[in-house]
Amino acid sequence: MNRLFLLMRNYKLYFSLMAVPLLFMISFQVSTPSQGSKELETEKSKRLKVSIQSQPNAPIVITTAAVDSTDPNTPSIKISLVNNSNLLVRAFTIRCDTQFGESKLTNCSLNNIRSFQNAFRPQETRTVTIDDANYSQPPQSASLSVDFVELLDGSRWGEDTYKSGERLDGWRAGAHAEAESLLGKIKTEGVNITLQNLQSKSPDVAFPSNASSEYMDGFRMGIDAIRARVVHTKNKTNLNVVVNELQRPVDLSDWR
Asked: Concatenated DSSP letters for 196-233?
C-alpha cells in the first residue's frame, strides 16, 4: 500500500511538472500571431478600396466594381455598367480617382463605339476594365464615376473633366479629313501608289489652327485610325474594296 501510494505520488509530481511547460507553450502559441497571419494582414492592407460615386441622373450607372490587387502597384478594376437611358449610347468615359495619402491621381477611359452592332443599348449591362495604370506605390483607395456620355442623337451628359467631347470632335474631324485625302489620291495616283505612300509618308492633311490640345490629340488619333483601317484591309489591291473601306462611317456619329 505504501509502495502504491509512493508510485501515485511520484506520478502526480511527474504530471504536474510536465503540465506547467505544456500550458506555457500553448498559451505562448495562441498569443503570438503566426507568420501566415501576418502575411494575410499585410495582403489585406494592400488591397485597393473602391467606392462608386452616386449619380442618380446619369444615363450610364456603375453598378459593381471588383478589384484584383495581385500586383498592388498595377491594380485591375472590373466595372459593370448599365445603360439607364432610353437611347443607344455611342461613347462614354469612366473616371477613376486614386488616393495616395494627401495626393490624388485621375485616370479616364474614353470608349468610342464605332459600329451600330456594338452600340450600348438601353438596359444593357456591360463590363469594362481599368488596368492600364502602373503606380510607383500601391494606391490606398479609388473612386469611380461616369465622366461623360454621348447618346446616339448627339446629345451629351456629364461633367466631362477629361474633355472627351473635344477629343471626339477632333477624332472625327481627323478621320474624315484623312479618308477624303486618301480617296483623292486614289483617283489621281491609283490605289497601289497610294498604299505604298501610306506606308512610307506622313499624312498631308492640314491640321486646324487655334484648336485645343484635346481636339488636336483627337485629330491625330483620327488620322491614325483611318490609315490603320486601310492597312489592315483585306484585298488591298482591289480598288473597290479600299474605296468602300474609306467611305464607311468613321463611327456612330455618321449613322443616319
From this structure: HHHHHS---PPPPSS--HHHHHHHHHHHHHHHHHHHT-
Going by C-alpha positions, the residue among 246, 254, 253 that lies closest to residue 229 is 246
**Cα angle for residues 57, 171, 203 (degrees, 5° grid):** 175
Q: What is the pLDDT of residues 112-144, one digit of tens each?
A: 999 999 999 999 999 999 887 778 888 899 999
Measured CA to CA, the distance from residue 92 to residue 236 in angstroms comes to: 33
Q: Smallest Cα–Cα separation from 77: which of 88, 65, 86?
A: 65
Q: In angstroms, rounded to a whole number, what is the distance separating the alpha carbons of residues 119 and 111?
A: 11
Residues in the chain: 256
Q: Tell me which DSSP letter residue 120 carries.
A: B
Burial of residue 153 (CB within 10 Å: 0-12, 13-18, 19+) is: exposed
The helix/strand/coil state of 112 is strand
